[in-house]
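Entry:
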Amino acid sequence: MTEAEIARTIHAYYLASYPHLGRTLEYDTDLLNEWFVDSLGIVQTVQFLEDTFAIDVARADIQVDNFHSVRALAAYVRRKLG
């Protein structure tokens, strides 16, 4: 699976799970500050990533660098997939 395919899957997940009427979710939108994903949303995102991509998200990997945006999450998942 390419990083672009991963990003599209994650993007669709956020649009369905955390809709914001009148706002556009770009691949570089700050999920934590602009899309308002809170701590529960991070937990749900981890579960989504693990279930969808069959990866294990380590606690140490749950950090801003990896969860900042759709693009950052896609890059993280791609690295985990090898």
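The two ends are 10 Å apart (CA to CA).
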